[in-house]
Each structure stands twice: as C-alpha cells, then as structure tokens.
Amino acid sequence: MNTVAYTVFVAFLSSVLTLVAVNALSSPDAAVPGDPEAITHEELARHDSAESCWKAIHGTVYDVTGFIADHPTPAAVMLEWCGRDASEAWDNKRPGRPHSSFAEGMLERFRIGRLVD
C-alpha cells in the first residue's frame, strides 16, 4: 500500500471514529442552551389545565389545549393527562389498544418540542 493511500485511510478512519464517539457521548435528551425545542419536566408540569394543556407522548411534547373541545371523549379524559407524560394513555386508548394512525397523524400539528431531562 502506498503512503498516500495509507494516510487517506487513517484520516478517514479517524474521522469516522471521532463521529461515532461524539454521537455516543451526546445525549439526545440533553438540553442544549438556546434549543427552542427543549422542554423540561418542570415546564411541562406548568401546563396542566384546560387553559394550557401540554402532554408528552414518547418524548415529544404537544400543546393540545385547542383540541380538548374537539376530542371525542369528555374533556375530563384529556385533562387528566395535562402537564405530564401521557404515553400510557396514548398507547392504551382502550386497554391494550393504542390510538389510531389517523389520530397519530393529527397529533403532529400540535407538536411544540421534545421532553428533556
């Protein structure tokens, strides 16, 4: 193997290993200063009413305040989960049955960020 090819190979391998190490050491749930999508558990907990209802579902935070009146169940069903992780309710709409793919498609329009530690 000639010297140039060997040097290029070592540089490439070093770059790949550096990217792997940085990715492994970076937590996707860590708050980055100035990250507009990062929502802490404390912030989520402040939105626990009909006037401001945020829910976390599988690490993503949604502001469903405007949907409470349109939800097919009584408002109390949704209000029970405001300000906290609602993954359990989402996955068990009826015992053992998650929300529909239609509901999942609607959910995206309410997305406001991601839950961080």
Automatic annotation (TrEMBL):
Domain Cytochrome b5 heme-binding: 36-116
Signal peptide: 1-21
Keyword Oxidoreductase: no
Entry membrane topology: Single-pass membrane protein
Domain of life: Bacteria
Keyword terms: Electron transport, Endoplasmic reticulum, Heme, Iron, Membrane, Metal-binding, Microsome, Signal, Transmembrane, Transport
Gene3D superfamilies per record: Cytochrome b5-like heme/steroid binding domain (3.10.120.10)
UniProt cross-references to SUPFAM superfamilies, sorted A to Z: Cytochrome b5-like heme/steroid binding domain
Localization, UniProt: Endoplasmic reticulum membrane; Microsome membrane
Protein family per UniProt: Belongs to the cytochrome b5 family.
Protein name per UniProt: Cytochrome b5 domain-containing protein
UniProt organism field: Halomonas gemina
